[in-house]
Structure formats: C-alpha cells, structure tokens
Fold these 2 entries.
Entry 1:
Amino acid sequence: MGEHVAAIDQGTTSSRCIVFDREGGIVFVDQREHAQITPRAGWVEHDPLEIVRNVRACLDAAFERYELAALGITNQRETTVVWDRETGEPVHNAIVWQDTRTDAIVRELGDADQLRAATGLPLSTYFSGPKVKWILDNVDGARERAEAGELLFGTMDTWVLWNLTGVHATDVTNASRTLLMDLETLAWREDHCALLGIPMAMLPEIRSSSESYGECGGVPVAGILGDQHAALFGQTGFAAGDAKNTYGTGSFLLVNTGEEIVRTEKLLTTVAFKLGDAPATYALEGSIAVTGALVQWLRDHLRIIDSAPEVETLARTVADNGGVYFVPAFSGLFAPYWRDDARGAILGLTAYNDRGHIARAALEAAAWQTREVVDAVHEAAGLRLDELRVDGGMTANELLMQFQADVLDVPVVRPKVTETTALGAAYAAGLAVGFWASTDELRDRWAEDKRWNPAMGAEHREREYARWRKAVQRSLDWVD
C-alpha cells in the first residue's frame, strides 16, 4: 500500500488534485482552472470535457510523484451533466449549481414543498432534477435518446468517476442534492422522476461515501463526498452537534444531526455521509448563495479593490459599517428565505459613507447571513453551537472571523489544514482501504490553527442584527 492518499477536488472554478500523508498533511497540489461560460444572464455552464482533461492532468502529475493507497473525489454539487452512454460525449455543457434557467420549470411544477418530505429539499433552481429536465426538454433529440436508454445523468462526482473507472455511480451525499432521492430509503424515487420527466435508466447507482467504486491506474477510487459534506468530514464533524461553515463563492453551514432526519422549511436536510455498511449520518445545511462572490464583485465590477485580500485592508480604514448594510441577493436569497424574487441592495447610505463602509458592509454580510442560518438550526433542531469550525478562502480575513465570532457569540476556530474539502474526500477513501483505522484516529489528527472569541456586547449585537434583518426585508419582492 502506498504511503499517501489523494483527493480530486472538482470545484466551481477549478479542478485540483491534493495528496495527503498519514498525518493529514498536504504534500502536493496541482490545480487547473476551467472556463465559466455565461450564455445569458442567470445562465452558468462548464465544459465537461475540459474538466475531465484538467482532472486527468492533475492526476497524472500526482501519479508521477507518489504511490497512492487510494483516491477520493469531492465535487461542486448539483452541477449537472448528461452524456452518451457509448461515446461519453456530453449532449450539452454542464449546467452549474448557480444557474437559474430552470425557474420557469420550478414555477410550473407548483408547490415548492411538495418533494420536501421525502428529499429534505424545496423545489428550486439550485438542485439537479430540474436541470436534467431542462436538458431533455431543450436539446434536440435528448428526450428520445434518454428514453431509449442511450443517455446517462450525473453530478460532477459521477461524471469524473465514469471517466476514470467506467463505473456509473454516485454517493448518498450527491444523490441527496437531486430532488430525486428518498432520505430514508437512500433510493431513487420513481414518482419524483416521473414528475420531472426523467427516465430512471439515466440515473447512477447510489453507493455509500466510503467504499471501493473502481480503479484508476491501479489505485482504488474509494471515497466520494459532495464538497460541503467533505468539508464537514475533513473537520472531523462526525458527531451530532458538530458544525462547520465553509466560506467560498457562497457559504455553507453544515450541522451534524446524527441518525436523525430533522426537517424544516428554512434549511436543507441532507445526508452528511455514509461509511460503508454503517447507517447514514444526516445534517442540516444553511446554504448562502453569495459571500466570497461579493468580494469578487467589489474587485471586478465596482473596482474598489484590486485583489480579494485588499477588502480587509479597505474595511479597516473605517471604525464600523457607518450604518451601511449590503444584502448580496444577486440571484435571490437561499437559506433561510428561499426567495428568488430578492435582489441585491445597499442600504443606509448617507453622504458620510465611503468605499471603506461598503467594503466593511460586504464582509459583515457574510457573517450576518451565517447568523441567520445558525439561528434556523437552533430553531429546527434545538442544537446550540459550542464553537464554529471554519474553512475556505475567506477564513484568512481576520476582520471577518472576529466579526463572525461577535455576531454568533461563540468561538470561531480555524484548523491547521484549511483544505478540509479535499481532506474529507481523502479521509473517506483512506478509511475504505484501511489506510486510516477509524474516525477516532482522524479526530485525533485535527489541529487548531487560530481561535477568535466573541467580544461584542449583547445589546449592540442584537441592535445590529435587527438592522440587518430590516435590510433583508427591503431586498424582497423586487422581481415580479
């Protein structure tokens, strides 16, 4: 057995291969960006073949240097590919999780909560099912080919796995993001497929998150976790009440609820992970559409900063937000509102304010949105966080991390290994092949890098929070 485990991290903007040693330390990274294709407003696509080329190039670089014991896959979730079973040729570009072209399909299907009891999800443009329907409805001949058994569907984990091993499978975490899988039985729902007009022959086999699915270059591919589930796993969030927040393009809070399926209209109920034959572990998820993307917007569109890290420097030029609140509802609001009629708004502006206040309000928006989903978790499951483990690019922003601790009134903790998404996929793969003995061993390896303790008075915190919620209300009902 090799002395290293690798993870393919197939993300929204790039694909990476990261190699880890037995201590969970990073020894190698190879990363390739792919094009963001935006044919119309609200449409976001990726070229699946470009992504496979990038994944193979990253893997080749790792294979040249290391003998690997196992390979894990983690991926941008909900992003949807349909391809020819024989040729492997996609019938259309991948439709990305952020894409909103399926809004008419979602509206036509009616009651947004009709599938929630079984899937834990609202009917939304976010999830894969409506994206598959759009492809079958809009690509010439696609529906006929799908009904004849010629086409396959997969999220990006399935697409990568099929190209590396020839196996058409997914894991429970990715399947739980399609609107097509029953949370209790962990099986595809025929009635949901019928509602969305999706032939069941297209669907991959649903497997656990940690088992051997096939081989790539003699190395077992043995772990699959959607990116946010992988981050929870990489943060060793194995027990009920464990929580992590990942700050990326958007932010995603996951709170482990053990074997209990907790249902609420404000949050998503999802499978956290399933290790081999063990029962599934579930989670509540607060999905926030825009956090890091707002900093990119300040850089690329408003042009008040030249690079993302500069946002902290600019925000520190002012003592506070100067009464400014920024609700980044660029394509509606995700949890806990689920309102696609909301649009972005900057509120509270006076002649006193400058770009420093806007930068600070943009950072604070990430923290306030997280506070709202943490409150929703407490309301739904009665779970109060003892601390919040954080990862993702924005955790380098110390101003944001301190403000996050202040508005949650709990410590915020950053781990030494911040690549928790790739680490989680590596852990799942390593456990499957015996590279690591148990989750207890993995928990012992987790190490703290930095901790921010709350330092804001309760009265000040609640006054600011009330203003934030007032600002959110102003952003609603914008689109008729």
Note: The CA atoms of residues 406 and 454 lie 4 Å apart.
Entry 2:
Amino acid sequence: MKPIVAIVGRPNVGKSTLFNRLVGGHRAITLDLPGVTRDRHYGHAHWDAREFVVVDTGGLFLDEQGKGAIEGKIREQVDLAISEADVLLFVMDARAGLLPDEAEIAQYLRRSGKRVFFVANKIDGPKNEEKLTDFFSLGEDVLPVSAEHGYLVNDLLDRVVAPWPKLEEEVEDTAPRPIRLSVIGRPNVGKSSLLNRLLGEDRLVVHDAPGTTRDAIDTPVTVDGRDYLLIDTAGIRRRGTWASKVERYSVLGSLKAMERSDVCLLVLDATEGIHKQDAHVAGYAQEARKGVILVWNKWDLVPAKDRKAFLKKHEDELPFLAHASVLCLSAKTGEGCDAVWPEVNRLHALCGRRISTSDVNRAFGGLVDAHNPPVFKGKPVKFFYATQTKTFPPTFVVFVSEPQGVHFSFKRYLVNGFRRAFAFGGAPIELVFRRKRR
C-alpha cells in the first residue's frame, strides 16, 4: 500500500483547499465517500518521485459540539482516517490564531503515535509569518503555508515524503509470489458465484440479495502449478447510494482490496448491460492503475443471435477501458470460465513487462517526431528522452523542458503509442513527466 497522509483539523481552516492543492495537479480522481463535507475523500499524489494517498476529512471536534448526530458521524470518519494514516497534517487557521480546542486536538493527535505536522494555513507570504506567534505555545515546529496560493507547500511536502524511498530507488521483489486477483463490480452481478466457479467449491456465500459480501475475502488457490490469491469484494455502488455505515466501511475495504491487487476482474451483468455504477467501479480500477479484464457474466441468458450486436453496443460505453480484454461467460453454467486463468496470466505478464531504455527511446523518438509538440508560454515543449522505472503498472519517466506544458491529449497520444509499440494490450501505462536538469 502507498503511504497515507490524512489532513485533519477544525472546520473551515482550509483542509479541502490543501487537499486539492496536493492532488489537483495529477491524474487521480478523488474518491468520494458519501456526504461531501462529512466523510473522507481520497486522492493520489506525487512528490519528488514518491507516491502517496491523501485523505481529506471533515471538521474535528473534541468537545460537546461533537456529540450531535452529524458531528458524531464526522468524528467516526476522522478517527478512521487517523487510524489508517501514516502521516497526519494538522491544519490550523493562522488568521484566526490558536484556538483553545486546537491545543486539545494537538494532544489527541500526539497520542495516535503517528508522524504529525503542525500546519498554519493562510500565510500568504513572509510578511504574514508573524501570525505564527500564537502557535509557539504548542511546543512544536509549526509550518506556515498558503494552501490557496501554494506558498511553502513544497517545503511541507519535502518534509512529509523525506523518509519514503523514491520510485527509482525501489527494489522490486523478484521472489515468486501469488498473482493477486480481485473480483470487483457493483452489487448482485455474480462476483461470488464466479469465484465459487473458479475455486470449484461453494467457498463463498451466494445470495440473490445485493450486498451479501461485506468484507474483502482472500482465498489462496493453485491452478496448473501457479499460485493465485483471489480477493472477493463487496459490491461497490456509486456515491450517494450507500445505505448504511456497514456498507460504507465495506466499500472502503473493496477499494483497498483493489489497490493491493495485480489484476482486477470487473464483473458486469449481461442481462442488464452497463450501468452508471459499472462506470464508477471501472473508473476506480483505472485510477488505481490496475490491469482490468471486463467479464460479462450471465452470458448464457443472452440469445446467441443477439450476442454480436450486444458487444458492439456496449464497447463504446467504457471508452477509457477500450484496450481491456473482454470475457463472456456464465458463472452458473461454467460456460467460458476456462478462459479466465489464461487471460489473467497474460495480463499479469504484460503488467510486469520491462522494456530496455534503447527500445523505449526508439519508439519515443518516433512518436515525438510524428506529432507537433505542445506549446507552453509561447514556446514548444522539448522532449529529451524516456526510460521505464517500474512495473505493475509499467511506468515511464519522460524528461522534458517543461512538465506543465504537456497537455493531457499529448500524454494520451504517447500512452497509446507505447501500447502499440510494445504490445502492452490491456495493461495500464503510467507516464511521469519531469524537467531535465541542465
């Protein structure tokens, strides 16, 4: 799992502004739990060749104000964020000064045993740093920032990520380990039925009522001498449709299970077609940068004469997964299920492919030469070279004159070009743009 940084503090101190500052410049979609201002929000962030997850939270109260129904739910969510985090950013409003309950919150966060950074927000420049005086009584090093304008946010990030290894310094584990395969999808599409079919036994509870599975369930299995870890997950519904606190937590568990998997089977119901919830789940898998196989379950219920038209109708409804492979099967009858394991093996191998730097730059040079470069502040962006830095997913660092000048459409062009040049198929590809040091 990536390190988790939770942003906590009283209401209206700029937590969400800081959250947007940290994740807004990257491709990750914020994963919203229900109740925009009440619950946790998740986003992916990059800084100095490190990757981490940022969690925004609702306003924290420790006194009597926190005993109301809504405030109590907010407190539950904040406590969960604190428990799962590796680092806490305690944000305070420098303009308002240090408030009495913030001293209590500081003590509360210290007791968590986590690394805590004390952040005084709304400091727009050096002339405003005199407002830090009130915060000296906390006995901590208080870091001034302006989340809105970005003032000294870079310095804060430097300190947060310092203990973590850079991507280039990561040593990949070459020891054999099981392929981690998660089965994801909205409720009641047949995820557990498919797992039982793959396992050859009724290991998991199957019921017609949606939401039977609450927790992610890990099941080791060996097929043809190869080890797998199958992860069944609770059905993931779209934001605003989660019925209970239990379901809220189970959905979070599903997202975490997706994060630690190598390959995801996205199960769809062939009798219903693609729902909005299916697109939401697919989006979560894409943002987690996992290999995805689209699985049309209940294929036996689609008349043979309609199958070709069915696939043609739905192939454009998930355009961001146009590169993903598609399996049509029936978990109930077993039709098509034998194709799952070979396709999982193939996609896993593609996600683990490593391309030599010379081959990368041969393809990269051709792509750059064949397309007009993007323009930034009136000057064309210069592209120097590229290299692969990691696998799972295949990640390439591209050195350019101005990373901010690379438009998302040109990034998409390069991704599609790499996919064709190296036959990556349904494997996700990540591009990171960095400024070349002269």
Note: The first helix runs from residue 15 to 23.
